Amino acid sequence: MAIATINPATGETLQTFAAHTDAEVDAKLAAAVEAFDRWRLVPIAERAAMLNTVADVLTRDRDALARLATLEMGKTLASSLAEVDKCAFVCRHYAEKAEQYLADEPIASNASKSWVSYQPLGPVLAVMPWNFPYWQVFRFAAPATAAGNVGLLKHASNVPQVALAIEKIFKEAGYPDGVFQTLLIGGSKVERVLRDDRVQAATLTGSEPAGMSVGKIAGEEIKHVVLELGGSDAFIVMPSADVEKAATTAVTARMINNGQSCIAAKRFIVHADVYDAFAQAFVAGMEAHVMGDPMEEATTLGPLATEAIRDELADQVDASVREGATVLTGGKKVDGKGWFYAPTVLADLPDDSPARKEEMFGPAAMLFKVTSLDEAIAVANETRFGLGSAAFTNDEAEMARFGRDLDAGCVFINTMVASDPRLPFGGVKKSGVGRELAGHGIREFVNVKTIAIA
């Protein structure tokens, strides 16, 4: 993919960027190592406090930053503004908590004194996606830099202006040169950077194939890696639930970010006793979305980020319909400029249909009717993914079962799945390895060092 800003609402190429040469990348790697040698010695309290200045810059420039994200990847302007605000939140969280999360831990042993010290690793490569172009980066960068690491960002090639803006934010906040740098490189150059001895670890948020590639390389190089991959999150509705609230939340959970979120609810598993009422309300809510220019306030559903993503979603839906799925609404591309796809709800999905087996990244949902708690859990767990799950019930025994038996990195009861700087985030099965956010996330990229004095 060329490194370019292409407006997904119109298909117009607005700006192109020359990729960094190998020599330029090597210079940035050298700068990262030099910066780390100094940055790791800065007291953690000082490193963490600088994140408050980053948050101040984000807040000051939120309107311009939000418009840039909407321009490059098509989310509504309201969504972009909320994303920038969330980035300021994660910075302030680690400004407050980083020192506590990484405090030395005394441990009684045969030594006269022994403890665990959390120390930074060095330059960390972050391979980040376009769907939350600020948030995905800051939820890595805030804890990683507070811990004393330095960051090298390889952002998605369709959001280069956001990538450069993030580097500028850290510079404006007073971070030393080399602590956070953007690499304008294509995907084919990632292996070269990851295999470089100066890079100590990597984190990737992206597709399953991308995660497998980075994971394999990191394994061969014996480097730590965190992978946050795809999801096909279940959203379960049981008879005791508030069906109206569940349906309203379901629409929001599916359509967040124009449907392009790894933790968006995608498979709606509804008990037969409330299925008809839920389906009617859910379809009506999906149909109520207003498609259009994502810069406009009235728009609630913008385009998909690229033409290829829109076409892949259309192919998945079309193939599933040919195999027997029923279209309750939508199911088609939207004519005209831009990469729009109609809000879609599918039911009666065959076991081997693409919609049921694959992650659908866009405004398309699946409805399943079940007759028991056990069947709901079985359908929820049938996918190879295991990122998040939501369940709506007022039965405490059912809540306990969902918390215990759903194969997911997080389970939310009576609300939609969401990431929160105060809670660890990540998945199981093919949804990835490792955790981001909270104390668990900041400890991913540190040396858990045992120190003992006889």
Description:
- The protein is 42% helix and 20% strand.
- The chain is α/β, with parallel strands linked by helices and 454 residues long.
- The protein has 2 domains: 4-229 and 431-453, 3-Layer(aba) Sandwich (Aldehyde Dehydrogenase, Chain A, domain 1), CATH 3.40.605.10; 233-421, 3-Layer(aba) Sandwich (Aldehyde Dehydrogenase, Chain A, domain 2).
- The protein has a 7-stranded mixed sheet, sandwiched between helices.
- Helix 2 runs antiparallel to helix 4 and helix 9 packs across helix 10.
- The longest helix is centred in the first third of the chain and has 25 residues, at 77-101.
- It is globular and about 65 Å long.
Brief account:
It contains 15 helices and 20 strands. The protein has 454 residues and is α/β, with parallel strands linked by helices.
Secondary-structure map:
Blueprint: E1 4-7, E2 12-16, H1 22-39, H2 44-60, H3 62-73, H4 77-101, E3 105-106, E4 113-120, E5 123-127, H5 135-146, E6 150-154, H6 160-172, E7 180-182, H7 190-195, E8 201-205, H8 208-221, E9 224-228, E10 233-237, H9 243-255, E11 265-271, H10 272-287, H11 307-322, E12 326-329, E13 344-347, H12 354-357, E14 364-370, H13 373-381, E15 385-386, E16 388-392, H14 396-405, E17 410-413, E18 428-429, E19 432-433, H15 438-442, E20 446-453
Parallel strand pairs: 5-6, 5-8, 6-7, 8-9, 10-11, 10-16, 11-14, 13-14, 16-17
Antiparallel strand pairs: 1-2, 3-4, 4-20, 9-19, 12-13, 15-18
Q: CATH top level of the largest domain?
A: Alpha Beta
Gyration radius over CA: 22 Å
Quickly give the structural class.
Answer: alpha/beta
Could you describe the largest sheet, including whether it forms a barrel? 7 strands, mixed
In helices, the fraction of residues equals: 40-55%
Give the N-terminus to C-terminus distance in angstroms. 57 Å
What would you call the shape? globular
Counted by DSSP, the helix tally is: 15
How many independent structural domains?
2
CATH architecture of the largest domain: 3-Layer(aba) Sandwich
Instruction: Provide the CATH topology of the largest domain.
Output: Aldehyde Dehydrogenase, Chain A, domain 1
The total of beta strands comes to 20
Strand fraction equals 15-25%
Uncertain runs: none
In CATH, what is the homologous superfamily of the largest domain?
A: Aldehyde Dehydrogenase, Chain A, domain 1
- Strand numbers in spatial order across the main sheet: 12-13-14-11-10-16-17
pLDDT average, as an integer? 98
